[in-house]
Records
---
Amino acid sequence: MADVVPKPHTPAQGVAAQTQDDLTPMALALHAASEAAARGEVPVGAVVTDAAGAILAIAGNRTEADCDASAHAELLALRAAAAARGSPRLENCDLWVTLEPCPMCATAAALFRVRRVLFGAYDPKGGGVEHGPRIFAATLNLQRPEVVGGLREREAAALLRDFFGKRR
Amino acid sequence: MADVVPKPHTPAQGVAAQTQDDLTPMALALHAASEAAARGEVPVGAVVTDAAGAILAIAGNRTEADCDASAHAELLALRAAAAARGSPRLENCDLWVTLEPCPMCATAAALFRVRRVLFGAYDPKGGGVEHGPRIFAATLNLQRPEVVGGLREREAAALLRDFFGKRR
């Protein structure tokens, strides 16, 4: 349960003005997760911000919609942010995601050279940052981002619990 | 150095008829790696075949061309193969790649549920199958593909050595 003061940020284009709190990166990631659930996708959302806190990309899971098992929110957001910047690297950018990234997405965050990975719920079964292969500790030649876990953890976990509860 | 009898296969569409040996999946992956090098990309190539050995997708690295640090040959080939099949899963398919997959691509292979991962050169620094986080051994809830390493290893390694040699 991290106690992090959010960095200053700029609202995403096209996001309806709501309260200031609804426009923090993690709030936007939670919103993208809810939208994914509404589409029948596992509710995980991700946001990439630049060094000044401006939103570069927002994405939710799209594995079913895109016929792509790798279409995790994080990978989609990282790819979109890099396209927006016109560079395959995202130095000084932060990845905000509602769930601890899996090993694929954790490695991708390092390959894109993001500065920080900030996530919501911990994932003991599928996570690859604090669980399983612990990518940033295990991999020799990757630049390791700073990690913050537990941001709005209860909301992020509740979205996943509701989603999988309904499926049983 | 594995001793594997290649499965029967169907030549990829658009590939000029050459000798039978030039159309094995690993030969096609090596060719895609050479083409990547010619574009200034790290020379790694990948092919996905279905259960009958037919080619579903061929890709080379495109991280620079696509402004996408995740555009590794394996991820591109897996995604293209899934799109071709119209399913986010690639059960009974095989991933052939000239270099030991990194942790991102190894995890992606498991997420796509490929049957086998067959690679060329070993990668002690960046690999995630036999080195580093050893994804298939470390991750609890992923389906583990069968792994074959060392197929046409010398050719695959020579491509990488030549590429990085020229850059120095």
Note: Helices of chain A lie at 25-38, 73-85, 103-111, 135-138, 153-167.
---
Amino acid sequence: MLKRYFPIVEWLPSYDRHTLSQDLFAAVIVTLMVIPQALAYALLAGLPAVTGLYASMLPLVAYTVFGTSRTLAVGPMAIVALMTAAALSGIVATGTVAYSEAAATLAFLSGVMLMLMGVFRLGFFANFLSHPVVSGLLSASGVLIATSQLGNLLGISMSGFTLIEQLAGLATHWQDFNGLTALIGLGSLAFLMGMRRAGPTLRRLGMTATLSGFITKAGPIIAVMISTLLVWAFDLEAHSVAVVGEIPRHLPPLALPSLDPSLIGTLLMPAFLISLVGFIESVSLAQMLAAKRRQRISPDQELFALGGSNLAAALSSSMPVTGSLSRTVINFDAGARTPAAGSFAALGVALVTLYLTPLIHFLPIATLAASIIVSTFTLLDARGLKRTWRYSKRDFAAMLATIVLTFVSGVEVGVMAGVGLSLALFLYRTSRPHSALVGRVPGTEHFRNVERHTTEHDPTVALLRVDESLYFANARYLEDTVYAMVAERPALKHVVLISSAVNLIDASALESLEAINARLDDSQVKLHLAEVKGPVMDQLKQSDFLDHLTGEVFLSTYHAWEALHDEKTAVKPTRDTSSS
Amino acid sequence: MLKRYFPIVEWLPSYDRHTLSQDLFAAVIVTLMVIPQALAYALLAGLPAVTGLYASMLPLVAYTVFGTSRTLAVGPMAIVALMTAAALSGIVATGTVAYSEAAATLAFLSGVMLMLMGVFRLGFFANFLSHPVVSGLLSASGVLIATSQLGNLLGISMSGFTLIEQLAGLATHWQDFNGLTALIGLGSLAFLMGMRRAGPTLRRLGMTATLSGFITKAGPIIAVMISTLLVWAFDLEAHSVAVVGEIPRHLPPLALPSLDPSLIGTLLMPAFLISLVGFIESVSLAQMLAAKRRQRISPDQELFALGGSNLAAALSSSMPVTGSLSRTVINFDAGARTPAAGSFAALGVALVTLYLTPLIHFLPIATLAASIIVSTFTLLDARGLKRTWRYSKRDFAAMLATIVLTFVSGVEVGVMAGVGLSLALFLYRTSRPHSALVGRVPGTEHFRNVERHTTEHDPTVALLRVDESLYFANARYLEDTVYAMVAERPALKHVVLISSAVNLIDASALESLEAINARLDDSQVKLHLAEVKGPVMDQLKQSDFLDHLTGEVFLSTYHAWEALHDEKTAVKPTRDTSSS
């Protein structure tokens, strides 16, 4: 119990000086690297920049205690920040204290939901989104996030959570365009994009892969330093270049978030969707990294840990957090060994907040916007789009619909549509299961599809193999299939349902089987079962179906054939071709 | 094309005098029997009583043209009426013209949705609700409908769409209690309940089963006549006994319903849920009756026909309609042969509206309430509850949750929760598929679960059979299963995935297979496939998975075993027990 909910007790006792030094080194790197990102994502969520720093302290400590991944780093994340802004925009005015309070409430709700889902082991909820839908959602969100920053990049004030709103905002406020801001923004963008590709060049200049890797990842902090210096040196703030400005030099105020019932009512659905998206992102990431180091994570405990992190965020006047890709990759590459690295990074961010925020005053918003835009590149998955198109047109359709809906109606609708489409697609597939009439391969105990193989069959016996579990979505289809088959074969006396691929018969399918049994009985046709799996048989025995069954339950199709077929009417195979 | 959308062209050419006389007879019976019900359901929906008559004219004609069931009778239906009231109650004030107009708009939206679903062949949507959930929904709705009528029965003015609201309404308005109304109401109730059970007594008195059947079903019309006479004779209207009152003596005004965008926006979701519930009720009913007469119906065309009926309802200032159980049973028992009977009944209702409504003036509402309460008895399914409990605790949990939610939050929430629970349950089941390591049954080409059978196996070869299609909900579980297995078996060199029960590999599962392939490769373990079904193989060839696959694709498990196992390491069976 203790180990389940507090994985820290597993690794802390064996924590030694060597691990400490590795974790400390990683924490220093992470602290430096993620400050710009933390500020940027707070702005993306419509919150004061300092909220991003707050979100990078206590939540990290909570994850140290509850998390099962050794290297996952939690904190603000782009898509979650965008969803936070979308959830709050209609309810409270941006920039007000009420807005910040509502963000904390959102983190609180998300935290409670995630923790409860963890306690009830609902980690499988993440499976409700198929990979193509998640990939489409991430790509479309990336584009939305990038376009949302075009205004900050060019000095144009705009907002909007759909592509149309954003483009309309850009078009109508075009006159706000500020040349100096654009120069800094586009300059930062060009620099950051260059840095991303600088790795090979740096290595050619003789650097080790590790060092060149760090320098390329340090792009944002370098851009921040240079642009801050420029703004300070040339007093560009006076020329309408927006800057981060004054940041309060204290630790996050600890307080219970607002629990106003009407606010909670409005935020329940957004909180659920944010939790879902955050969890899926986070757990995929944690699983990928655990696989690299041959470690294992527990999805249910990850839910609990993310819930704890969000509660910590809520109690420290912050915003919803989740496992962040860029943060985690830096942490992993810097050699973090345990979740303690996260707590050390939290300490680092606290020190920065207390002593170094005056340096951030002149940091231009346009540079942060550029760093957000560059970070969205990792979300775009054009290759996935192409692969899915080749592999399955239906999966591709779900993916495309998710992308289009996210563009047109925002991330929330995109997530809901994605879940709906994933499920609808699967249900549609399983609601018309494949089934085949089989016949005996002459001289053997094997039975194969009569359409594909040369088989022996008997017009009085139909051997029907159903290739799917029987459940509510296909129960009616099964009835239709059997009735149609019986209607076509007037000589029929026996129908054998071969259940080798039936892993489940739910209550709906049981009712259909009873209906089939009764209807066939009216036509003097007996219903038999064959190859019923053990667990399915155990469950059938809980009902009185087997008492009413007009026929028998056979162990194998061969037993059924031997017992039912009539030597006089059986037809020897006449087809002389045999395909697969 | 013509035959698909206008099934009338199939039966009309062979329509003869004999069929005509049967249909006419059924129409007369239906007209007489359903008048009280039509009035009652309109009141249940919060509409003027005459709306129920309007809903029993043009919609029936539309069904004659478009319907595929020979005996289904459309019209107002209890649950749909309750849902109509719930949908409109928050938006417009009951009793106003705007309320009636909104009801027509609801019918219009429902009609458009149903028609579109029919055109796009989305009849399988009905499969999204499992039988236990539908049964729970009907039972709970029945109780809600019955309690909603307690006020009318006792002369207490109350309203509410959840059990709590209703009981609170009864409690707070208890002082309205009207003794005379209660006498009529409870008297009618006792009479109707007695009539339902009078069948055996009447037959013992020498009546034929048909005649006694009709007399028992005529209960409501007899109760209506007697109570109307009493109210008229003793002028009970002056003693605060509520009556139907003046009914306009004209045919329904034909008009386009209000298409106010904000009204439509609010009604979209209720319209969808009403369509879903109405369709499920109607199509189950039609299928049951078609089965009795060895006819077939087309669910997709039924959607189209119900859509047409609702459009007809909308254009004639009426309310949402669907296939009605009680109406249909009367029609079927009265011997209707074709949908023409519906049109004749529509004519009958029109004649009643024009010439006989003055007779209805003194009909007490309490009697109508009693007839509604009695009609809900057919919705209660206590036996289903017990059966489901015995057969499957999970299905029972979904059923119970649907019932509780319907009581607490109303029918709309009940439907949505029902759909959600049905799906969640199924996904949960398939997200953890059964899988088994199999070994060779000595001396044969058969492979069975090593846990259950005496088999020959090889520590370097794992033969893993997965008993489920591989799709997004279980893709991650498959990865976990394989990794856990490999971690336990250090000697492993080959993993063979036996795919005989895999009917589908979707894009998510493909990614998981690729991840498994790569990860096993890291550990010098080869991944092979065996018994891949034809269509699955065809789809795999659309991706480059097979190019990267470290192992081979074998036709059968036996082929894989022969190629991979090592005579030196293979272990002959040592267990001497053999179970099923």
Note: Residues 575-580 of chain A have pLDDT under 50 and may be disordered.
---
Amino acid sequence: MDKVYLSVDLGGTRIRAARCRAAGTIEARTEQFTRAEDGANAVVERIAESLRVVWPAKGKVASIGVGVPGPVDPFTGVIFLAPNIPGFVNLPLRDWLQAIFKVPVVLGNDANLAGLAEWRYGAARGHGHVVYLTVSTGIGGGVIMGGHLLVGSRGLAGELGHVKIDYHGGACQCGSVGCIESIASGTGMVRQVRERLAAGEKSRVMEIVSGDLDAINVEAIARAAEQGDALANAVLDNAFYALGMAVVSFLHTYNPSLVVIGGGVSNLGERMFTPVRDTVMRHVMDPAYVCPIVPAQLSSDVGLLGGLALALDPPPQSSH
Amino acid sequence: MDKVYLSVDLGGTRIRAARCRAAGTIEARTEQFTRAEDGANAVVERIAESLRVVWPAKGKVASIGVGVPGPVDPFTGVIFLAPNIPGFVNLPLRDWLQAIFKVPVVLGNDANLAGLAEWRYGAARGHGHVVYLTVSTGIGGGVIMGGHLLVGSRGLAGELGHVKIDYHGGACQCGSVGCIESIASGTGMVRQVRERLAAGEKSRVMEIVSGDLDAINVEAIARAAEQGDALANAVLDNAFYALGMAVVSFLHTYNPSLVVIGGGVSNLGERMFTPVRDTVMRHVMDPAYVCPIVPAQLSSDVGLLGGLALALDPPPQSSH
């Protein structure tokens, strides 16, 4: 009989869990608030509680895959850090959950797992070498090479938002400068618009948000751009040129057969994809590197499907 | 009995070939000029001739590994392009050699193979996840992930010299702008010094090369820098800061346990390694990414050992 897998999508706001089959079907699901302010032990207990809700009445669980909002070591099952969950620092979540449930547990970074989900169930099915980017408030990534998630020596590979695209550039929230995230993420674009407004430039964005600087978001910038606003278009153009240049770097370093872009900013559709693709065509070093750049297909279940995909195909238990 | 492998190091100037054992011992070798101007057929015939010279009198050859100065598809054995060998365009060298010698032949890009050689026989022995950079007239790379050469969907991965570090920056010889090669390669540094001299800046470099602009090279720049020359130090500082930032990107994208840097520029020793390491420590997003950054160990045989390493462990024959 078809094996049963459990999947957990741990977020800063919500904990989702599901009972799944390898084909990508979700048979049961549950959701609750993370309430990270209650501390690490309470959050771990909520994860366990969610797993009990979806645990099958009969039959066995083959394994449990958990997506975590921060860097994790898949070899040791330790969460280095989850920026949105205070207390999740060097937390051995895998061993804690295995001690409770007595089945294999495997952890992965949420952006990595979103890439894995798109590869197994979404836009990248059938491709062996895939670069996945999520462009949202931040920029994250996941890389599939030869049909396996690229994790590197400590599970930290694929941190695609923090490649340097502007080595003498402005500050990034990671503490360094010039990362693609600081230019092409939603947060980065909003910051650039605010800075230029503060410097005295004019933009329709201000009317769209009724003069409330704090209300500026990517949708407002995109609306202003659509109406022909010069400042909004300049910020979007620069961001998507930068994103295209980062994609060129990824083509040269990973040589994927497909690039998938998801996340909130990708909902701008062709306003984002067209300049990214144009930049790639202009700047790639050889046409042999060119590959399709397509939107992600999975929506709100991408996290649960990522945990499932990881449970099905955990990284080899070696490191170094 | 221990198997015999043949290795070819095809360069724009010289063709080297050797008879080897898996341990990295070279039992016989030969070398001749490539004389690329004679055309592709003549060069292929010279490769075959070199292989006949080192062919064992008795016993079998297990396989032949060939390093090529340009992008190759390891799955089809076709050389896309060898910039220094006119006529080597979409050349099915693997099949040609297999037809002649009736043993398995495998092709790889020379910088990729240098990384593979450092991993199997040099500075990166015992590491499963390695980023290798050669910083010379250009910048090339080779990446080992999980004990295998990362080749990507068409064998083009690891082209580390053409990551974008300055997205609004100056021209690179690849036809694009802002590549790390354009800033931190020997050619890039020499160009920057010449441009600043042409703009009227003064430098001791001019005395060192006796006023001959064409004689400016990395050694002359380094000598001037050592003597306290401001222009020379500024160019080196900027180049090695840029190189360090590129290494930060590689740590974030590949998460290696070791970075190896070879090539002519790396002979500057601590004048290069110290600023690169300092930049990494300052700009990496989390200390968990930090790993040693060490000099390459193999010298002129790196190409032959790379071909041997590839022959021993060819990439899986699948793609996409």
Note: Chain B has a mean pLDDT of 95.
